[in-house]
Amino acid sequence: MELEKEWFSNWFDSPYYHVLYKNRDMQEAEFFLRNLVTKLTLNTNQKLIDLACGKGRHSIFLNSLGFDVTGVDLSSNSIASAKNFENNKLTFEVQDLRNLKYDSQFDVALNLFTSFGYFDCNKTNQTVIEQIHKILKPQGILVIDFMNVDLVLKHLKPKEIITREGIQFTISKQIEDGVIIKQIEIEDGGKKLKFHEEVQILNRMDFEKILTSGGFTLQAYYGNYNLEPFDTITSERLILVATKNA
Ligand SMILES: C[S@@+](CC[C@H](N)C(=O)[O-])C[C@H]1O[C@@H](n2cnc3c(N)ncnc32)[C@H](O)[C@@H]1O
């Protein structure tokens, strides 16, 4: 009997995800990472892991700066695409954040562009943080780049139609039990497909709780890719920097 695939295995592995989010590009990744590397005074002797790396836009840029980077993602299509960029300091692997196959070997773990909160319970969030704790060296750094849920909820459009590359995406959003649920209906020529996306509504306090009970200390948080102070009402992002407790 074939087990039903979890929604994130379907949607993020499909080419349509990459068309819909094509504005989340290399340029955005470079801008953010230049600021982050400076702010955290990272140096190229440090070993980085990009958790839920997608096609590897952040990993590839960090590697171009001289860092040793490992990128992991559940999507085998995204990892196959990222593998084209591999070199002796850049590797990609299909792995599940809930069960990472490394020991404590990384100095910095990155979880970027809302790649957290996909699971249906807080226990799994905690499992992911414990896994990240396991793979970091003592005092290792964790950066989580999440949406600012207050801003997202304030501007939530119940329905919108977006056309990209001749493909029509009809997106309906609703809130259910602390989760934003996006239904995505696609019309591509004669083809009609349906996907959905779910992200938990997690604010700074929720993250602080999850991080603290997972053995991390929240050190700082920022509100955009320029790393300006976080403001609940206006910030686009919630970017958290935590360190693994010794
Ligand atoms: C919004 S995308 C962000 C991708 C990438 N960080 C970027 O900025 O381009 C979220 C990613 O999380 C990955 N993902 C979802 N659940 C995962 C899991 N359990 N383990 C590993 N990756 C997962 C998806 O395959 C997808 O590539």
Q: What does this 3D model show about the protein?
A:
The protein has helices spanning 7-11, 15-20, 26-39, 57-64, 76-82, 122-135, 149-154, 204-213; strands at residues 47-51, 68-73, 90-94, 106-111, 136-147, 159-164, 167-176, 179-188, 191-200, 216-222, 237-244. The chain is α/β, with parallel strands linked by helices and 246 residues long. The chain has 2 domains: 7-148 and 202-244, Rossmann fold (3-Layer(aba) Sandwich); 152-197, no CATH class. The strands form 2 sheets. It has a 7-stranded mixed beta sheet, with helices on both faces. A 4-stranded antiparallel beta sheet has the order 6-7-8-9. Helix 3 packs across helix 4 (57-64). The radius of gyration is 18 Å and the shape is globular. The protein binds S-adenosylmethionine. S-adenosylmethionine (SAM) binds at residues 8, 12, 24, 52-54, 57, 73-75, 78, 96-98, 112-115, 118.
